[in-house]
Amino acid sequence: MLRYLTAGESHGKGLIAILEGLPAGLRIDVDFINAELRRRQMGFGRGARMKIEHDTAEIFSGLKAQKTLASPIAMIIHNKDFSIETLHPVFCPRPGHADLAGYLKYGFSDIRECLERASARSTAATVAIGAVCKLLLKEFNISINSTVTSIGGATSLKERIEKIKQAMQRNDTVGGTFQICCHNVPAGLGSYVHPDRRLDGRLAGALMAIPGIKAVEIGLGFGYAKRFGSQVHDAIYYNKKKGYFRLTNNAGGIEGGISNGEDIHLSCCMKPIATLMNPLNSVNVSTNKPAKAATERSDVCAVQSAGVVAESVVAFVLADALLEKFGADVLSDIKKAYQFYLRRIR
Ligand code: EPS
C-alpha cells in the first residue's frame, strides 16, 4: 500500500511530505520534482506569494545514491514567507473558504488558526509527492498531463486570458475547468470487487479533495445522461499488434472500476478563489455584527496550478494501483511482473 502525509501551514516554517510504500531501486531526480513544483507556481492570475516563494524540495530521507531504499521518503519545502506568529488575526470569514466552518469546528478564537492549514499552499507538498509517483510511472512509460479547458466559461486561450484580466479589473476572482489525460495505463488497475478498490472512485475522491474542486467527471461524465446506450458505449476490437482496443473512449479508460487499457480522461471544475478584494457580506465572529469578509493576499485565478495538483494526485492513485497489482518491493521485480502480464493480456 502506497500512502502519504503532508504537514505545514501557509505561513509556517514550511511544508513536509512523506511518501511510504515505494519499491527499492527507483532513481529519484530532484530536478524533476523541483520542475513540477515550479509548474504549480505558474499561470496567469497567480498572486504575489508566487513571486516570494521559489519552491524546492529538500529530500530528507529514503534515498542512498539517489535511489529509493523502500523506506519512507521525506521531503521538506521551506517557506520564505514564514510569518505565522506575527500575522494579524482574522474575524470576518470569507464566504466560500473554510473560514467559518473551520472556526466553528475547532473552537478557535481567530480564523487565522484554521485558514493557515486550509490554504492551498499545502498543495506544494502534494505536488512533491506526485512528482515522485510520476517518476515511478515513467519507468512503465505511463504519463499524465493536464490542460485548462475553460476560464469563467470562456474556452479559447485569448478569451480565457481576457476573463482573468476582467476579474483583475473588477477586483474579482474566476474559476474554470481542466482535463487530465493519463497515457499508457495498462488494463487491469483497480477492481470491481469492492467499492473502495474501484479506480474511478479512488481517482474521483482524490480529485474532489483538492482545494477548490467542485466537480469531477470521468470520460463523457454528465454527457452519458443525454444519450442512448448504443450511442455511448465503446465498441471492442482486437488485432495482434494492439491487442484489445476501442475506436471511441467515452468511458474515459475505466470500466467496472478497472482501467481498460485506453487513455484515462478526467475533467474537473474549480470554483473561483474565495478571497475577494471586493468582499461579500459576512459576520464578525467576535461581535456577531454584520461586516465585510476579510481580505488577504491571494490569487485571481489558479486553475492552471490546480491542473498540476490534479496530475499529482492522479499519479499517486495510479502508482498505488500499479504497485498493488505488480508487487511493491523491488523495481526490477515489478518490471518483470509487468512485462509478463502485458504478454498475457495480448
Ligand atoms: C498559495 C499560497 C497562498 C495563496 C493561495 C495559494 O499564499 P498567501 O495566502 O500567502 O498569498 O496565494 O491560497 C489560496 C488561494 C487560498 O485560498 O488559500 C499557494 O502556494 O498555492
Provide a quick synopsis of the model.
This protein has about 350 residues and is α+β, with helices and mostly antiparallel strands.
Structure notes:
With 346 residues, this protein is an alpha+beta fold. The protein has a single domain (3-345), classed as Chorismate synthase AroC (Chorismate synthase, AroC fold), CATH 3.60.150.10. The chain is built from ten helices and 17 strands. The protein has helices spanning 30-41, 49-52, 99-106, 112-118, 123-138, 157-169, 199-208, 229-232, 303-326, 331-345; strands at 3-7, 14-20, 24-27, 58-61, 63-64, 67-69, 73-78, 143-151, 176-183, 213-218, 236-239, 243-246, 254-255, 258-259, 264-270, 281-284, 289-292. The strands form six sheets. The protein has a four-stranded antiparallel sheet with strand order 1-2-7-4, with helices on one face. A four-stranded antiparallel sheet has the order 8-9-15-10. Strand 16 (281-284) and strand 17 (289-292) form a beta hairpin. Helix 3 crosses helix 4 (112-118) and helix 5 (123-138) crosses helix 9 (303-326). The radius of gyration is 22 Å and the shape is globular. It starts with a strand and ends with a helix. 40% of the residues are buried. The model has no long low-confidence stretch (mean pLDDT 97). Bound molecules: ligand EPS. Ligand EPS binds next to helix 5.
